[in-house]
Specification:
Helix content is 53%, strand content 6%. The protein is mainly α.
Length: 417
C-alpha cells in the first residue's frame, strides 16, 4: 500500500447499475459560539461552488458502475484488472523487489479500494439496498487473497491460487479496516472474525526494535513505516468500535503513541518510515500518513473524551492543509495531489474531525479539487487523470484501479456530508 518502501510509490462478477509552527495554545482551540460561527461562515463561503449531495452520489454511482464494467475480470469472480485498458506489459513498483510485472488481476492494495468504495456507498441510506449485493461479491474477491499456508494466517499481496507472494502488514491493515467497516454496515459476524484475523497477523509483526511498531512486510526487518503502523492503528480502533473490547483500544493507543514518538515531524506531519539499521528517518511526507493519524485522533477522542487527541488531530489537519496547499501545484487546485488514494485517506481524517468540530475548510478544499478533476480531467470512459489535472497526456494514460475506485469512495463520502 502507498509508499511501501522509500524508493517506490504504489502506482489493476457482476455488473451493477481514494507549518512550521509549534502547537497552538489550548486557549485558541475553544468551541465557543464565536469560533463555531466563524467555521460556519468560512464553510458557506468555501462551499458556494461545490457539488451538492445528490450530484456527489450520482458521480459515485457512475464511477463505481464504470469500474465494474471495465475492470472486472469475468474469469475470476470478484476480482479486477490493475489497469484499464488491460496492460500486462507494465511494471508494478509498489511491492518488494524489482521488475514485478502487471498480472492477470490486480494486487490486493488497489483491490481493497473497491471494498472501501462499497462500504462508503453503504453508509448512504438511499444507496444501501442497491450496493449490499456487491459487498458480498467483493468479499469473495477479498478472500481470494487469504493465505492459510503460513502461520499466523493473513492476506498476501496476490491471490495464493495464482502464486505465492509476500504478506504486507499494511495490506492486512486495509483488509482489517474494510472488514470492520463491513461488519459495522451489516453486523455479519464473519466480517468481524476476518477483521480480527487480519489484526492478529499484524500484531504478530510487532517487535521491541525501535521501541515497538511493525515492519512493512513479513520477513523484512529493514524499516517500520507509517503506512503499516497507521493502518494497524485504525484497525485496532475500528475493532474497538465494533466490539467495545478494551484490548483493541489499548492496542490503538499503543500504535498511536509509537507513531507520535517515532514518526511525527516538527512541522506536525508524519514521516514515511524509520530505518531499523540506524534509526534514520525517511523524511518524506505523503498525505495518507498524516491522514491516518488525524482519523485516529478523532476516533480516540470519541472513545476516551481526552482533549489531547482532539487537539492532536486539529493540529495535524491544519499542518497538512498548510503544507499541501503551500506546495507547488496546479493553479486550478487547492492542494498538491500526491496520489488520489493517499488524498482519500487524508479526507477520511478530515471527515472524522469535521464530524466533531464542524470545521469544513479542509474537506471543502479536497471537494473543490475533486470537482475540478471531474469536470476537466476525465477520459472518454469517465476515468480521471492520475494527478487530477486537465493535462491531455495524463488523461490519455492507462488508468490504474487505485486512482479510480477512490473517486467513487470520495464522492460517496461527500454525498452524506
Amino acid at each position: 500500500m502507498g509508499h511501501k518502501n522509500s524508493a517506490a510509490v504504489k502506482s489493476i462478477t457482476d455488473n451493477p447499475s481514494n507549518i512550521f509552527t509549534m502547537k497552538k495554545k489550548h486557549t485558541i482551540r475553544s468551541f465557543s459560539l464565536l469560533s463555531t460561527l466563524i467555521f460556519a461562515l468560512s464553510a458557506s463561503v468555501n462551499a458556494q461552488n461545490l457539488t451538492d449531495r445528490k450530484t456527489c452520489l450520482s458521480r459515485a454511482q457512475f464511477m463505481y458502475s464504470q469500474i465494474w464494467k471495465h475492470y472486472r475480470v469475468n474469469r475470476y469472480r470478484g476480482l479486477f484488472l490493475e489497469y484499464f485498458p488491460k496492460d500486462t506489459t507494465g511494471k508494478v513498483d509498489y511491492v518488494e523487489g524489482s521488475a514485478v510485472k502487471v498480472k492477470e488481476v490486480s494486487f490486493l492494495w488497489p483491490f481493497s479500494g473497491m471494498v472501501s468504495a462499497t462500504n462508503a456507498l453503504l453508509h448512504n441510506p438511499s444507496a444501501r439496498r442497491e450496493y449490499l449485493p456487491y459487498l458480498d461479491s467483493l468479499v469473495i474477491g477479498m478472500e481470494a487473497y487469504k493465505d492459510t499456508s503460513r502461520k499466523p494466517p493473513g492476506y498476501q499481496a496476490y491471490p495464493p491460487a495464482m502464486e505465492k507472494s509476500d504478506r504486507y502488514y499494511d495490506d492486512n491493515g486495509l483488509v482489517g479496516i474494510e472488514y470492520a467497516e463491513a461488519y459495522l454496515n451489516t453486523k455479519k459476524p464473519q466480517y468481524l472474525d476476518r477483521a480480527k484475523l487480519a489484526f492478529n497477523f499484524i500484531i504478530s509483526g510487532w517487535t521491541d526494535e525501535l521501541g515497538g511498531g511493525v515492519y512493512w512486510l513479513e520477513g523484512h526487518h529493514d524499516q517500520k513505516p507509517a503506512c503499516s503502523n497507521g493502518m494497524a492503528l485504525l484497525v485496532a480502533l475500528k475493532l474497538y468500535e465494533a466490539t467495545s473490547d478494551k484490548t483493541y483500544l489499548d492496542w490503538g493507543e499503543r500504535f498511536y503513541n509509537w507513531m507520535q514518538t517515532n514518526l511525527k515531524a516538527p512541522n506536525g506531519l508524519f514521516y514515511n518510515d524509520k530505518k531499523t539499521k540506524d534509526g534514520s528517518i525517511n523524511a518524506t511526507f505523503y498525505t495518507y500518513n498524516t491522514g491516518s493519524v488525524i482519523e485516529a485522533g478523532a476516533l480516540l477522542y470519541r472513545f476516551t473524551k481526552q482533549e489531547k487527541y482532539l487537539h492532536d488531530a486539529q493540529d495535524a489537519a491544519k499542518a497538512s492543509y498548510d503544507y499541501y496547499h503551500g506546495q507547488q501545484h496546479d493553479p486550478n487546485l487547492e492542494m498538491k495531489i500526491d496520489l488520489p488514494w493517499f488524498v482519500t485517506v487524508l479526507f477520511r481524517g478530515y471527515e472524522s474531525l469535521y464530524r466533531i468540530d464542524k470545521n469544513s475548510k479542509y474537506i471543502n478544499a479536497i471537494h473543490h479539487d475533486l470537482d475540478y478533476a471531474w469536470k476537466n480531467g476525465r477520459d472518454a470512459n469517465g476515468f480521471i487523470s492520475h494527478d487530477w489535472t486537465a493535462k491531455k497526456v495524463e488523461i490519455a494514460k492507462h488508468k490504474w484501479l487505485m486512482d479510480e475506485d477512490c473517486i467513487a469512495e470520495l464522492y460517496a463520502r461527500l454525498s452524506r456530508m
